[in-house]
């Protein structure tokens, strides 16, 4: 296609993109300016009633507005879509596996009561549920592109300097040489004695020791800096959602609508059909 036609084809999209960027800039700058005014009024105090936030730290580095806006967007985009997508997959799994949902509720109740963990494992069952869902449904099926700064030798292959390297995160989690029955949702594999107990989800990128059995947050120096927050947030949301509501499939008893667990590939891999579930408020007795 001639260059002029190509430009004409992409121009409307570029204009839309510029417009979206302008709106993003205005929204984020409003928030940054509010923090700047506050700092001018009370100073960059650490031990005041309002805690020091990410923007305060950026301001203290003396960065320019454009750079701060870009960093804030990177954080917001990287944090929100990935975490909400992971939560949707986890809740879909709990709708599909009612036995796991009941076991989770029991484990939460026994732990809250200070009794021995219901699953007999030191790892809370909710953590196992979150990890198992991230293994099967990592929101990012590929990482951000990485590159080699020198020739690297790996398993007898040479990856030349300057190669663009990426990983099939989704495939690693379902590798049959690493996981038994990899397509089966079984959170118990992450409990003590299970093949996934070594996996921490963070640190070495989700591997456990030197073996990368899964890497939903990437690995190494450029691994997700929000992994620890994401895992805590997910566990807290799942615990609260399951304690307050019973999550059931839509439809009446015996005629439940089957969940569509297929994926919509993209930068973030979402559920092709967004989750629809029937929520029933749990009674106080059920919660305890
Ligand atoms: C379930 C939730 C999340 C998943 C699955 C996830 C996954 C990832 C992955 C795979 C990468 C690329 C790593 C690489 O290329 O090696 C990444 C990068 C990043 N994530 Fe997350 N993330 C999540 C939540 C968060 C949260 C909550 C934050 C912030 C609070 C965050 C901030 C970032 C940032 C800033 C980067 C870019 C790091 C860099 O370029 O060095 N993420 N994330």
TrEMBL record:
Presence of the UniProt keyword Plastid in the record: no
Binding site for heme: 224
Top-level taxon of origin: Eukaryota
Single GO MF descriptor: oxidoreductase activity, acting on paired donors, with incorporation or reduction of molecular oxygen, NAD(P)H as one donor, and incorporation of one atom of oxygen
Annotated InterPro entries: Cyt_P450 (IPR001128), Cyt_P450_CS (IPR017972), Cyt_P450_E_grp-I (IPR002401), Cyt_P450_sf (IPR036396), Plant_metabolite_P450s (IPR051103)
Membrane topology annotation: Single-pass membrane protein
Compartments reported by the entry: Membrane
UniProt keyword terms in alphabetical order: Heme, Iron, Membrane, Metal-binding, Monooxygenase, Oxidoreductase, Transmembrane, Transmembrane helix
Reported cofactor(s): heme
Record bears the keyword Transferase: no
GO cellular component: membrane
PROSITE patterns given in the database record: CYTOCHROME_P450 (PS00086)
Family in the record: Belongs to the cytochrome P450 family.
Name recorded for this polypeptide: Cytochrome P450 89A2
Native source species: Panicum virgatum (Blackwell switchgrass)
Organism classification: Eukaryota, Viridiplantae, Streptophyta, Embryophyta, Tracheophyta
């Amino acid at each position: 296609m001639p260059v002029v036609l190509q430009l004409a084809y992409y121009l409307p999209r570029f204009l839309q993109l510029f417009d979206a960027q302008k709106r993003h800039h205005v929204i984020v700058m409003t928030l940054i300016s509010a923090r700047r005014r506050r700092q001018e009024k009370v100073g960059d105090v650490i031990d005041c009633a309002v805690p020091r936030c990410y923007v305060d730290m950026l301001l203290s580095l003396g960065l320019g507005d454009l750079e701060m806006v870009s960093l804030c967007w990177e954080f917001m985009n990287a944090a929100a879509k990935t975490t909400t997508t992971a939560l949707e997959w986890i809740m879909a799994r709990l709708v599909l596996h009612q036995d796991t949902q009941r076991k989770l509720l029991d484990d939460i109740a026994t732990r809250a009561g200070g009794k021995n963990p219901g699953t007999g494992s030191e790892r809370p069952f909710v953590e196992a549920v979150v990890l198992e869902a991230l293994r099967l449904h990592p929101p990012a099926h590929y990482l951000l592109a990485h590159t080699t700064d020198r020739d690297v030798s790996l398993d007898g292959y040479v990856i030349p300097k300057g190669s663009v390297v990426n990983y099939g995160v989704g495939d690693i989690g379902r590798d049959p040489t690493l996981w038994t029955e990899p397509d089966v949702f079984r959170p118990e594999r992450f409990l003590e004695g299970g093949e996934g107990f070594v996996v921490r989800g963070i640190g070495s990128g989700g591997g456990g020791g030197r073996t990368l059995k899964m890497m939903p947050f990437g690995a190494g120096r450029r691994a997700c800096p929000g992994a620890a927050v994401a895992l805590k947030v997910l566990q807290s949301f799942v615990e609260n959602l399951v304690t307050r509501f019973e999550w059931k499939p839509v439809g009446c008893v015996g005629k439940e609508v089957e969940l569509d667990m297929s994926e919509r590939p993209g930068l973030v891999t979402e559920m092709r059909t967004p989750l629809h579930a029937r929520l029933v408020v749990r009674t106080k007795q059920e919660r305890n």
